[in-house]
Amino acid sequence: MGSKEKQPEKRKSKEKEEKGGPTPKEEVIKRGEEIEKRLKKLDEIIDDVLSEAEENPEEEAQRFVDSFKQEGGE
Amino acid sequence: MGIEQEYAVTTPGTNLDLIRASYLIVNSFDRVAEVGWDYKAETPFLDARGFTSEGETVRVSRADNLKINNLLVNGARFYVDHAHPEFSTAECLKIKDTVAFDRAGERIITLAAKRAMERLEPGTKIEIYKNNSDRKGNSYGSHENYLISKEAYHRIFPPSSSPPVYLLKYLLPFFISRQIFTGAGKVGAENGVGSVKYQISQRADFFETILGAHTTTKRPLINTRDEPHADRERFRRLHVIIGDANMSEYTNFLKLGTTAIVLKMVEDDALSEDLELAEPVKANLAISHHPDLKLKLSLADGRKLTPLEIQQVYYEQARDYIKGKGKATLEEREVVAEWGKVLKKLADDPLALRSEIDWVIKLWLLDRYRGRKGISWEDPRLRKMDLLYHLIDEKRGLYFLLEQEGEVRRVVSEERINHFLSHSPEDTRAYFRGECFRRFPSDIVEANWDSLTFDLGGEKLIKVPLPDPTKGTRAEVGDIFKKVKTAKELLSKISA
After folding, report:
1. A28 inside 8 A of chain B by CB
2. pLDDT in tens, B16-72
3. Is residue B191 in some structural domain?
4. What b/e readout covers B17-33, taking b as 16+ CB neighbours within 10 angstroms?
5. B371 CB-near residues (< 8 Å, 6+ apart)
6. Helix, strand, or coil (residue B177)
7. What ipTM did this prediction achieve?
8. Is residue B414 within 8 Å of B218, Cβ to Cβ?
């Protein structure tokens, strides 16, 4: 049953190759590059939020954590 | 069902204390009317086990009542509880509506904090966090409420002379093990319970006993507060305090959905697998401290099961229950399908849930950062990230940033969330309450979940009971609202 379901996919890929579209391998590479780009952007956003531009991000983070003080609730 | 969320507040760089800040926030959101909270209608010290525990009844002046409480046109209660602003959603019938309403609460408190800042000296900052602890031993809650039948409640909580056998065997193991897909994650441990680099739940460090009516001291896994906010002869409210505050819509959906289904199974006496844990309080903590999910827990009958295996037993029972139940809703079917998928992913590769489950999303984020910077788990930047994940701020809140980048899975639409900023659910009594607030604000003096008190200028106040949370819906009273122009006409129509 599994092989029957896969056949149309194979046919599609072959058609793409014949028509000059991206091969499955190229598609995987392209998708990988897109993910990398997305994650890099996310890393930059997080560095920005964590004040990585500051001289001592560690100390700044410690100050932030220390100042986060609440009273118990419920 | 509904959620009560206590938010954390910080006021960096100012002398504004947390209590004053909480009052300022709550009173900075649109007040529809001078409606106080009806504390007389509350029974916080009645215990499900059949006795009354000690405590002081709330007595506040009318002026203080109005400062503490802001009752909203969407049927919600926005108020000050201890040193926290708290948002209680209106009663919702649908799981996704509860998720959307909870998110509307985030937006309401954001707007309220913004307005509060405008009333203060320039540069004063107020920040809001949706989490459950300050990592210094102080915890605050994210409670869930579920309407169940009186019979089901007594099945869970028998009279005080009997041990809660049903609870221990059939229900408590669900609440303890559900954290593997409901936990919000936390760096480190607190409250003197040992050390750990990263744990699944925010709250597990704080539970000390199995049962209890209180929530602030000797925190129980299962709260026995017998306060139905409805007709005691028919209904009870299960007040669940063991959950975390969820940022992820998907996690919240699964938490509310699986719990609602399991409670329906309690009503139908459809839980038949005895999974009683040998040491429930210790098991709750141990699960949280083992995010590898490999820990084997001792059961009372001598078996050893992982939390995943325990959840699998509940899932299979629920799947069969829903399959055999002709009237299961589409939402219930969706919950069961997702429950099965999540358990499989947790077993195969938990990081596959890095867009869905809060503790996994946070772990992925922290691990990625650790890898890039080459830092240890003790680095304070990770603790800062942990807190910032819960910051309710579109520009700096890490969860919100992930959402904007399309990195997390949405469950409800923006449209639905925004709808609940100013509208109540139409399929519960919240519709009646919300419409009364909207149309006749100056005629209502007090409210509680199960009553509204009108002052129509006569000798006596008129109290309208709302004992059935499923009544007072738009389908039932929508036409009446269209036909009446005054509160007097409304009361005359509904009494007829």
Report:
1. no
2. 899 999 999 999 999 888 999 999 878 888 999 988 877 777 789 999 999 999 999
3. no
4. ebeebbbbbbbbbebbb
5. none
6. helix
7. 0.93
8. no
d(CA B47, CA B67): 29
Determine the Cα–Cα distance for residues B475 and B480; give it in Å rounded to an integer.
Answer: 10
Q: Classify each residue of B246-268 as buried b or exposed e, where b means 16 or more C-beta atoms within 10 Å of its C-beta.
A: bbbbbbbbbbbbbbbbbbbbbee
Q: Helix, strand, coil shares of chain B as percentages rounded to 5?
A: 45, 15, 40
Residue B348 resides in a domain: no
Structure tokens at B142: 């994210």
> Is the Cβ pair B384, A61 closer than 8 Å?
yes
Beta bridge partners of B91: none
Q: Which residues of A touch B8 (CB under 8 A)?
A: 68, 70
B217-275 pLDDT, tens digit per residue, is 889 999 999 999 999 999 999 999 999 999 999 999 999 999 999 999 999 999 999 99
- With an 8 Å Cβ cutoff, is A50 touching chain B? yes
Whose tokens are 């995943």? That residue is: B308
Interface contact B367, partner A, CB < 8 A: no
B251 closest CA partner among B181, B311, B334, B146: B181
Half-sphere exposure of A8 (CA within 13 A, CB side): 2
Exposure string for B369-408, b = 16+ CB within 10 A, e = fewer: bbeebeeeeebbbbbbbbbbbbbbbeeebbbbbbbeeebb
**Separation of alpha carbons B96 and B346, rounded Å:** 23
DSSP string, B13-62: TS---HHHHHHHHHTTSPP-S--EE-GGG--TTBBTTSSB---PPP---H
User: Containing domain of residue B114, as a range?
Assistant: 1-130+390-496
**Average pLDDT score over residue span B385-395:** 97
Whether the CB-CB separation of B186 and B199 falls below 8 Å is answered with: yes
- % pLDDT > 70, chain B: 100
CA-CA distance, B360 to B347, in Å (whole number)? 13
Q: Which residues pair with B77 in a beta bridge?
A: B71, B88
Mean pLDDT, residues B377-390 taken together = 97
- Inspect the interface and report whether the beta carbons of B383 and A65 lie closer than 8 Å: yes
Count of domains observed in chain B: 1
Q: Is residue B147 part of a domain?
A: no
- pTM for this model (two decimals): 0.94
State residue B496's pLDDT score: 78
Contact (Cβ atoms closer than 8 angstroms) between residue B229 and residue B237: yes
User: DSSP readout, B442-471?
Assistant: GGEEEEETTEEEE--SSSS-EEEE---TTS
Whether B427 is in a domain gets the answer yes
What does the alpha-carbon distance between residue A55 and residue B1 come to, in Å, rounded to a whole number? 48
Q: Which residues of chain B make contact with A69, given a CB cutoff of 8 A? A: 134, 136, 138
Q: What percent of chain B shows pLDDT beyond 90?
A: 90
The phi and psi torsions of B57 (rounded to 5 degrees) equal: -70, 140
Are A61 and B383 a contacting pair, CB within 8 Å? yes
The answer, yes or no, to whether residue A8 has pLDDT greater than 70, is no
Which residue, among B407, B26, B20, B366, has the nearest Cα to B186 in the 3D structure? Answer: B366
With an 8 Å Cβ cutoff, is B140 touching chain A? Answer: yes
